[in-house]
Amino acid sequence: GEDVEQSLFLSVREGDSSVINCTYTDSSSTYLYWYKQEPGAGLQLLTYIFSNMDMKQDQRLTVLLNKKDKHLSLRIADTQTGDSAIYFCAESMDNQGGKLIFGQGTELSVKP
Amino acid sequence: DTAVSQTPKYLVTQMGNDKSIKCEQNLGHDTMYWYKQDSKKFLKIMFSYNNKELIINETVPNRFSPKSPDKAHLNLHINSLELGDSAVYFCASSQNLGEKLFFGSGTQLSVL
Predict the structure, then answer these.
(1) Rounded mean pLDDT of B26-37?
(2) Environment class of residue A37 by beta-carbon count within 10 Å: exposed (0-12), middle (13-18) or buried (19+)?
(3) What is the four-CA torsion angle of B10, B94, A20, B88, rounded to 10 degrees?
(4) I need a surface site. Which of A46, B10, B62, B76 has the fewest CB within 10 A?
(5) pLDDT for A78 beyond 60
(6) What is the chain B residue with the closest CA to A6?
């Protein structure tokens, strides 16, 4: 089936690290994505990882992929108040025309 | 320059009316999409087009008709609007199916 699961809320203090977790179902996905949505805005592609990678680092962002457990995480180092947003995990369904299946989003709240 | 632009940003209308949302991308991408985001922030694909050809039609009522006059445009026409159509509709584009989608800023549709 198609199911991408995330926890709904995460609250951290400014300067701490944030870790947002996601589980997915399709082991054939070529790409897994993290998108950020600020209030009233569209989705911004933050980062992505190929399914043959375990880790990808991009400045303050670190993506970890555990294919065996179908688990994806996004770590934001030195979290800032401007990082407050909803973060969506998504997998591409390669055997279904490449459509993206999104998780329900994790609302990250960063307190000063 | 906005990469994926959709108009209008807000659309308030009465039940039973017909309305259209327009989308244009200037990224030179071959694939365009419509996604629907409900009040719980859940995102679901509605349609995808590749080079003006319909690729995905995700069991959307046939009151919704996408039209792609060229590969840079994908418009969404909705007939006989219902209360349950109230949502935010996002247009997106990518170079290839399912790869790195770039989203517009959304159209908030309110059906009264």
Answers:
(1) 94
(2) buried
(3) 20
(4) B62
(5) yes
(6) B42
pLDDT digits (tens, 9 = 90+) for A5-56: 999 999 999 999 999 999 998 777 788 999 999 988 889 999 999 988 999 9
From chain B, pick out residues whose CB is under 8 angstroms from the CB of A47: none
Chain B interface, Cβ < 8 Å to A: 4, 31, 40-45, 48, 55-56, 58, 90, 92, 96-106
Nearest CB partner across the interface for A43, out of B58, B99, B103: B103
Q: How far is A13 from chain B (nearest CA, A)?
A: 24
The CA distance from A46 to B14, in Å, is 37
Q: Give bridge partners of residue B36 from the DSSP assignment.
A: B44, B89
Per-residue confidence (pLDDT) for residue B31, from 0 to 100? 92
How much of chain A exceeds pLDDT 90, in percent? 74
For residue B90, give the nearest of A30, A43, A96 by CB distance.
Answer: A43
φ/ψ bin of B81: left (φ > 0), alpha (ψ from -120 to 50), beta (otherwise):
beta
Two structure tokens written together for A108: 């990250």
- Residue A99 clears pLDDT 90, i.e. is over it: no
Q: Is the pLDDT of residue B66 over 60?
A: yes
Cβ–Cβ below 8 Å for A42 and B100: no
Residues on chain A touching B40 (C-beta within 8 angstroms): 104
